[in-house]
User: Fold Fatty-acyl-CoA synthase from Desulfocicer vacuolatum DSM 3385.
Amino acid sequence: MPEQNVNLDLLSPVKFLNRSAEVFPDKLAVIYGEQRYTYLEFQKRVFRLASALKKNNIGKGDKVAFICPNTPPMLEAHFAVPMIGAALVSVNIRLSAPEVSYIVDHSDAKAIFVDNEFGEMVASIQSSLPKVKTYVNICDVDDNIPLDGPDYETFLTTGSDAPLDIDITDERDVITINYTSGTTGKPKGVMYHHRGAYMNALGELLEFKIRPESLYLWTLPMFHCNGWCFTWGITAMGATHVCLRKVIPQEIYEIIQSEGVTHLCAAPTILIGMSVYAKENNLTLEDGLEIMTAGAPPAPAIIQNMEGIGATIMQTYGLTEVFGPHSVCQWQTKWDELPSMEKAQLKARQGVPMIVAKYMDVVDSATMEPVPRDGKTMGEIVMRGNNVMLGYYKDPDATEEAFRGGWFHSGDLAVMHPDNYIQIMDRKKDIIISGGENISTVEIENTLYNHPDVLEVAVIPVPDPKWGEVPKAFVVTQAGAKTEPEALIAFCKKNLARFKAPKYIEFGELPKTATGKIQKFKLREKEWEGHNRMVN
Assistant:
């Protein structure tokens, strides 16, 4: 540890736990079913995990992988692993065995903690993980021990609950490595640092209005950007974590009611499921609910539906490479009296940089010059500041490309409105160039969401012999709806410039990631098989 300095302290979100344990020792920190931990009990469990790891020769600079849903061990790992100077690798629980094998091996993890729902899958790839020396079984759903190693609670007993100092020498030490979804090539390991996680966690507390009396429901995967840094932020405020193993609308509403949940985060697809369930069961949120949404641009109709049952929606925007949220659609009181759809349209914008982020712009990717603030001219969103990753683990070329020109390049195309609020129009690879005209897939999707028969939609470019490419919409309809493709196309032509209307409509389920993002690349791959598509 560095010597004490009278006017300098290293920033690390791990320190939030010690403060809350001192201020709120008897307050509920964690709720999971019948399990209840106070902040003092939570802290002692973290100390035990940290010291048990040290006894297994894991320490500064090492990597520890967790394959675990949103249960208490996953939350404890966010403090215990970085406390000893190691880096936490939270693995997406929806990945296949080969994908998990690649991530664990590439990250150089020395230990792996596995919820027993995924134990057999990990057992099948053990031979491909020579760097892993310690296996621990997290026995949540049953007492099965599929891996050669202790169960989690037994592992904790090998440690001590005596306080441990935080073993970091630089606040830009790696705190976690989060692997991207790998939609193009192999997943990339995004390196977070202690300073960025500390700053982003505090920024979210300010924007989301978390208070000590808040109860936060874990509908957002902790493996996704470390739960957008709320793993640390909720703890910093001394609020209560309500853990949730599976995201099921009925269970969400039951827990909101029984525990008094005040806040949650969710991708737009989760909100769709929640709003449908509420409508089918005539539910309203009598005590209100604060919801932060991100992960994909939400349609105004989705926001309007959730606010119609009593929720308040806050739209944020970011990427794995910027610790989760980087901007927020900052609400202004002058908009309070607008009609509900106009308010929803404003809330659907990606907004302005968070207080702790500050640096964000929309630029011409070639010249790096800002685009006009006219709400029409598209450019790429770029960001820099404390909450930008250190880089991609063991991938200097990809890091250099992402940081060209001194900014992090998002790959998202957007416009900048005259009031300095950003609005995403598309991903670079998704923008449709039809007969020389740029068409935003997001604009078409937002239009279709206003049709009463549409539940979910994804629009992509598909090849066309005359125009090069044209829009095609993949639609999931509301239960019982009997709409035809022609009706939806006509609806778009009525509400958009006619050339922007999809030429084709296909009904069926949409491929999604574990965090609820629609995987457009899978739709594109199928439609473009045998064709070459040029992407700028």
